[in-house]
Amino acid sequence: MSNPTRLYLSNDTSARAAGAGSLADAWADRPEVQLIRVSSRGAFFLEPMVERDGPDGRIAWFNVTPDDLPSILSGTGGTAVRSIPFLAHQARYTFANFGETEPLALDAYQARGGLAGLEEAFRLAPDAIIEELRISGLRGRGGAAFPVWNKWKVAQQAKAHPKYVVANADEGDAGTYCDRMILEGDPFRLLEGMLICARAIGASRGYVYCRQEYPAAAATLRAAIHKADEAELLDIDGEPFPIEVVDGAGSYVCGEETALLESLEGKRGIVRARPPYPAQAGLYGRPTIVSNVLTFATIPQILSRGGAWHASLGTEHSRGTIALQLGGRVKHPGLVEVPFGLSLRQVLDQFGGGMAPGSRFKAVQVGGPLGSLFPAAGLELPICYDAFAKAGAVLGHGGIVVYDHETDMVDLARHFMAFTADESCGKCTPCRIGSVRGREILERIQAGGGTSEDLALLDDLGETMKLASLCALGGRAPYPVLTAIEHFPVEFRSKLRT
Amino acid sequence: MHEQVQSILRQVRSEPPNVLKTLLAIQEQVGHVPVEAISEIARSLDTTTALVAGVLSYYPDLRVAAPGRHVIRVCMGESCYANGCGRVLRALQDYLRADVGESTPGGKFTLGTMSCAGNCAVSPTVTIDRDLYGRVLPSEVETILKRYR
User: Fold this and answer.
1) Burial class (CB in 10 A: 0-12, 13-18, 19+), A135
2) pLDDT score of A466
């Protein structure tokens, strides 16, 4: 019998939800198939996608069903992966391995340039690592966009010991999934970034705080840590650097760095007043770097390719690439890694492929449940930190959700306020009480009992929450609500009691 | 149950003690955190009952009562919202005749929601125990639930 044909199929949670799991089950007993379970390219509208090696790179079949096996094996009807427009127009750096490698194959990670950043970090003095990050212009990818080198410098110069490195894998912003993809698909990249950080600041222990909604991510990461430990990678200058995965318990606000640290200590996930910042006094009061998964995963290539390489991508104040995650009513939902600077319209047209069949565009929300809404007229905005800041908006963690003509904006606004009321940690009054009152007002308007005074009240309440809340949950919660009222005033007014 | 909790408390002892980790470990094995065990847990972790009860009441995933045999959660995230999770939730409520937070008579299913499953590109999403379903249509709800005994 001839050798079985190697077929590549993603094992990512969303690929499985799209049917990759049942495909693997259907082909499990086929001797002519050798199924390799890789990460996902993030073109989820094409999943389940099956690939095989061709003379000129991988060839893919889209939205595959078990019955498609004969044509795949005979090589008919496939598309060259490099000619898929959704992928060909991206700049895949942090996500270069996606769809190519098995997530837990350390040798494949290394063969594709993995660990080169860590090797470089061992060659450099801690100051030189931080200098490379300063040159790179990297800003935290979790939402706050704080310069990474600055945080590291503070932690490095802090005298207290031990120091900690904490990866924030509590990707709670609805509409975002790139951290989940990294945890499930390229976990060694996260570990490498954490090790580089530990070497730079002199940390002796690492934690990954992983939300409980991501069971596959936590399991893959634990397996990756075990493999890295066996390969003696969890070691810095002869000292062990153990990394532990800690499970969250369903609280959104634990994605805020100080609430996350409280939760890591086993307490209620309540936001701490800052300063002191975690880099000065974080976990157990010790200097701690808390960064998002994507931030850590971006660092290895900054070391291996150089800070200047990273700074050469993007715009003046937004260097590098951004991982955008398209969702909602777009035709092509999925992961898009591009340099900063494209307009929202370019991203939605080029990558989103326009609207899902039967849908007409109404609004797009950028930056998760605390992000602003934009109508069609706002789509020329370039995707970079300063342009968004100027527009009073945030990029957050790069989630982009498109709403269609069927969306009831009053109900959507109520949905946002109800979310904050549910998730508020309760420490500060503007968020704890404000979100409940905001939800009540929107429920009243939705039920037909609101007046124009209620709209004025929402505006006033929103301004108070923006100015007086302790963290971004209360501070940002008014934005989607107020931008909904700003851009769709007729919908709100038509529901008011006359 | 008392002995089971005690044995878990011995296993998860850590330095410094960690209340959340302890409660998650108990829930993992018992299915929920019995309120009667709070003082025992506090003693074992050398902390107060108020602190343990505070952590227990804070986290949405910690339960003080056993859920149904299968826990259904409908994702209410923005991408799922845009793709009609409200209709999926209503279909589940109608079929199960249970509201969010309730269990069906006999305790087969408990219905709940979640704020995001990270499956936004294949939404709307429903999870049942450890299984995750994407692109769920209201009309598919019945077929999916029939797979669970």
Assistant:
1) middle
2) 97
What is the spatial distance between Cα A249 and Cα B124, in angstroms, rounded to a whole number?
22
CATH code, domain carrying A219: 3.40.50.11540
Chain B residues with beta carbon closer than 8 angstroms to that of A171 = 116, 118
CB contact under 8 A, B120 and A399: yes
- State the complex-level ipTM: 0.96
Whether residue A2 is predicted with pLDDT greater than 80 in this model: the reply is no
Task: Return the DSSP state at A349.
Answer: I
DSSP assignment of A246-310: EE--S-GGGGSHHHHHHHHTTS--PPPPSSSPTTTS-GGGS-EEEEEHHHHHHHHHHHHH-HHHH
The parent domain of residue A15 ranges over 5-88
Average pLDDT over residues A168-186: 97
Q: Could you say which of A88, A115, A133 is where a domain stops?
A: A88
Tally of domains within chain A: 4
| pLDDT on residue B12 | 85
Residue closest to B116 by CA, chosen among A121, A250, A481: A250
CB-CB under 8 Å, B122 with A44: yes
- Closest-CA distance, A481 to chain B, in angstroms, reads 13
Show which of A372, A389, A404 is a domain's final residue.
A404
In chain B, residues with a C-beta closer than 8 Å to the C-beta of A259 are: none
Contact A250 B60 (CB under 8 A): yes
Residues in chain A: 498
* Residue A209: its H or E element: strand A205-210
Helix (H) or strand (E) holding A344: helix A344-346
Omega before A242 within 30 of 0, i.e. cis: no
- Domain assignment present for residue B64? The answer is no
Largest CA distance in chain A: 80
Chain centroid offset of residue A18 CA: 20
How do residues A37-82 score in pLDDT, each as one tens digit? 999 999 999 999 999 999 999 999 999 999 999 999 999 999 999 9
Contacts A205 to B, Cβ<8 Å:
none
Q: Alpha helix (H) ranges present in A349-384?
A: none
> Do both A272 and A295 map to the same domain?
yes
CA dist A243 and A377 (Å) reads 47
Residues of chain A in contact with residue B17, where contact means CB-CB under 8 angstroms, are: 266
